Structure formats: structure tokens, C-alpha cells
Amino acid sequence: MNYFNIPKIDLHCHLDGSVRPQTILELARQQKLSLPSEDIHEIQTLMVAPETCPNLDEYLSRFELPLSVMQTQEAIERISFEVFEDAAKENVKYLEVRFGPQLHQQLGLTFDQIIGSAVKGMKKAEQRYDIHGNYILSILRTLPKDDIRDIIDAGQKYLNNGVVAFDLAGSELPGFCHEFVPYAQYAVEKGYRVTIHAGEQGSGQNVYDAVSLLGAERIGHGIHIKGHEQAYDLVKDQAIALETCPSSNVQTKAVDTLGQHPVKAFHKDGVLITINTDNRTVSNTTMTDEVRKVVEEFDLTRQEYFDIYKVSIEHSFASERVKQHLRAFVE
Ligand SMILES: O=c1[nH]cnc2c1ncn2[C@@H]1O[C@H](CO)[C@@H](O)[C@H]1O
Ligand SMILES: [Zn+2]
């Protein structure tokens, strides 16, 4: 299988985890910010989470550096364009990018400016390349909650015109969903779709809660439904698609090795899975690499790959028109 040429869909990719190291250097120079190093290799090393990362929190510390240069409209627009450009160049046909508007306010940008800049960069790339995309707004579940409704309100202007969904991200604590019920409800009322990071570092119970309390239609990672019967059955019965991110899951110790990843067992048992990058830079990966890893580690046939690709289409938050376009690539 030619992993580079084969059409791909990425439904779980963080903007701030996917910044080119060279862009960090250039933006820091333009913005007169001092970096820990001027050497591109050292910058890259600082941005990539090590294989030996002890846990998710260590992994999440890698976002500080890229976020430091993502505080202006120009920088956000540029980085958004580049993520879509990088994906398009490896035959990703559809990409849903997520980011946390709360993390881009250090110089006083409004949520409208932040979200608008990301959407603008994406649209520029959609015009230039054969790629379509949408944005997901990630709320950081460890930050104060007083501005969540403002973010949802600001995104509404772009809803179904660049923005499609609501997500909760960041460190995962047991039972976190309970505190977010009114916010998820507010987002759904406004027309947002819902995907939630759950069952990555936390238990299957978080997945159960994300679906039953928050209305999640997809789950970011969801690995720990393994061994939690109620969560497993709920995900399977309600056809909730899991956004699997193999390299990231090994880095954050959600699984010890790729071979121990439950993705194949899930797939064989009829649990819907998709293959995604999570963070192109922090996980030092591409969709080509993620597809290769899964196909080779688990001996998937071309047909099985396209079955997963089809799950990604049908469970994407794309418009019907874009889904039609993506179906045309199925063999
Ligand atoms: O795998 C992950 N699990 C949970 N949170 C994550 C993951 N990757 C990135 N982020 C968090 O999402 C924020 C917005 O993009 C990032 O700044 C990071 O804190
Ligand atoms: Zn993620």
C-alpha cells in the first residue's frame, strides 16, 4: 500500500501541536520574542514530546512554546494555512483541526479575532489545495469556566462556515464531565456538534459520561472503554466513533506499545474507529505515518483501510456536499 498516495482523513488534529518548527523561529523573530534556542533542531527537540513521556501532563507541557508565538491574528492565520497545506501535500482530503481559543488571548485578541483568523487561514488553503476542513473549538477543562459561553457565542458566527464542533481538552480528571453539562448543552442548542477527549488518561467512565451527559457523538481517544463494559457497550450501541491517535497514545502512556493498542480489537468487534494524528509536531508524525503504523502493526488489508476511511467520512462533521466529494475516493 502506498501510504502517502492513499486518500486520508484526519478528524483529530490540534493546531498548536502541529506548528512547523521553522515557523516558530520566523514568528519569534518577527514578534521580537526570545526563544530558548535559535537552532531549528533544538526547537524541534523542544516541541516533540519524548517517547519516554511519563504521562499526558508532561506531553501537554510541549504546547507552551508554540502558543507563545500564536498570539496575533497574522500568526494564527499563517499557522492554520500551513497545517492544512502540510496535510494536503500528503493527500489528506479532509481535516478537522481543533484549538483552544482561551490560549490565544495573551496579547488581548478577542475570541472573534482568534477564531476568525484560524478560519481565514483554512479557507486560503482550501482554495489552493484539494483539501476541505473545519474547526473544532476546544475548551480547556482545567481553566476557569467564566468565558466558555463567550467562546461558543463567538464561534456561532462561523458555524457551518468553518466551525462545526465543541470539544473538551487538556488534562483528564475523573468525573470531569459533570461540571460541563450546561456548557455542552448551550453549544448543542446553538448548533454545535460534540466530540470530547475522554478515556485517554482517565477511565472508561469518563467516556460513558461524555456520551450520556454531554452528548458526545465522537470521542477523542476512548482507549479506556477497554475493560469498562458499560462504556464499551454504549459506544458500540450508539455508533460513537473513536478518534484514535496511535503515536500520541504511546507517548502519553495511554498504551505501553503500539502492539498493545486496542484499535484492531475494537475494529474487529464493530466499535467504530478512525485514524488521526493528534499533534503533527508534538507527536512528530503525519497521517501517512499513522496510517502506515496501524496498517502494518495490525496487518490490515486495503479493504479494511478503506472501511476505516469510510467511518471517518460518515462520522466527520463535514457537510453532505463535502462527504460526497470524499466518498468519490473510496476504492
Ligand atoms: O491528546 C491530548 N489530550 C488532551 N489534551 C490535548 C491533547 N493534545 C493537545 N491537547 C490540548 O489541547 C489544547 C488545544 O489544542 C492544547 O494546547 C493542549 O493543551
Ligand atoms: Zn487531542
TrEMBL record:
Q: Which InterPro entries match?
A: A_deaminase, A_deaminase_dom, Ado/ade_deaminase, Metal_Hydrolase
Task: Report the catalytic activity.
Answer: adenosine + H2O + H(+) = inosine + NH4(+); 2'-deoxyadenosine + H2O + H(+) = 2'-deoxyinosine + NH4(+)
The Adenosine deaminase domain covers 7-328
Broad EC category: hydrolase
**The EC number(s) this enzyme carries:** 3.5.4.4
Which residues take part in binding Zn(2+)?
Answer: 12, 14, 197, 278
Q: Name one Pfam family in it.
A: A_deaminase
* Textual note on the cofactor: Binds 1 zinc ion per subunit.
Q: Name one GO molecular function term.
A: zinc ion binding
Q: Does the keyword Hydrolase apply?
A: yes
> What are the catalytic residues?
200
Source taxon at top rank: Bacteria
Q: Which HAMAP family match?
A: A_deaminase (MF_00540)
Protein name listed in UniProt: Adenosine deaminase
Q: Which organism is it from?
A: Thalassomonas viridans
Q: Gene name?
A: add
